[in-house]
Amino acid sequence: NYPPGYGNYHTYAELNSVVDDLVAAHPTIAQRHSYGTSHEGRDLIAMKISSPVGQDLGKPEVLLSAGMHAREHLTVEMAIYLMRMFTEEYGVDPQITDLVDNRVIWIMPQVNPDGGEWDIATGSFRSWRKNRQPNPGTSAVGTDLNRNFGHQWGGSGSSGSPSSATYRGSAPFSAPEAEAYRQFVLSRIVDGEQRITMNIDFHTYSELVLWPYGYTSASLAPGLNADARDTFQAIGAEMAGSNGYQPMQASQLYVASGVSIDWMWANQGIFAYTFEMFPASASGGGFYPPDSVIPAETARNRDAVLLLTEYADCPWRAINKED
Ligand code: 0X9
Ligand code: ZN
Question: Which numbered atom of ligand 1 lies nearest the CA of 255?
C-alpha cells in the first residue's frame, strides 16, 4: 500500500471501485470493458464513455491511456480525473456534453497494473518501471512496455538485457499488457477503418508534450510526411499552450525505439502523444510527488484533453487541411 503522504493515490483495488461506481452512477454513458489480462491475471480495464454508450454510431474515437510505467502513479490519477470529468460533467458542462454526445472516449487507467501494485506492495516505493513478467534463463523480471511495441522494435534507446529498466522484451508485443493494448486498438477497426484518431499516453515526469517519431531524430521519416509532422506540431503546441508543458518531437528528448506512440502512428495512423506530467524536474518529487499535488496537476491537463478530443473528427484541421 501507499506510504504516508500518498494515501489519496489509488491502489488497483481502489481504482476498480472508482470505475465500478462511476459506471453504476452513469450507466447510459459509461461502460466497463476488459481488454485483456495482465501477466499476473489482473483485469486490464478500459472505460468507454459516449452517449448513448451502448450503440455504435460511427463517432470518432479517442484513447487516453495511463499507468504504462509502474512508478508513474500520478498518471493513474490523471485517468481517474478524466473518467470523473467526462461522466460527472455530462449534462452540466456544455463542452463536455457535446463531446460525450459526439465522440467515443476510451480510458485505460492502468495499462501495467502488476507493476503498479509491485511498486507499492511493501509500503515503500520500489522505483519499479516494467511489468512483472519473468524472463527465461535469468532472475531479472520485467519488460518495459514502452519499448515492446512493434514499430522499429529493437532499435536505439532500448535494451536487450532483461536486467535493464528499458528491456524491450524477447519480441515485439511479447508482454501480454502491450499485446492486449495492440489488440484493443486493432479491435477498433470497423469496416476497414480505424475509429480511434487521437491518443494520449500519460507518463511522468518532465512536463512535456511529445509526438512521433521517438525512434529517429529525423523529423520526416517513412509514414511521417510534412503535413503529418506539421499537424502533430500544431496540435502539440496548442495543447502545451494550455498546460504550460514544453512541446517537442519525442526523439528530441532522447531516441527510444518500440514506444507506443510510434506504433500507433506508423501502424494505425493515430495522432498519438506522450504527455510527461508533473514535476518539471526531480526537485519536484520526481516519480513520487505527494498526493497533495493530485488535484492541481490532473486538472492542469483538462483543456489539453478537451482540445485533443475536439480534434478527433479531423486532426488535419489544425493545419487547415481536411483529410
Ligand atoms: O522513456 C520513456 O518511455 C518515456 N519517458 S519516461 O520517463 N516516462 O519513461 C518517454 C517516451 C517518449 N519517447 C521518446 N523519448 N522517444
Ligand atoms: Zn513513463
Answer: 16
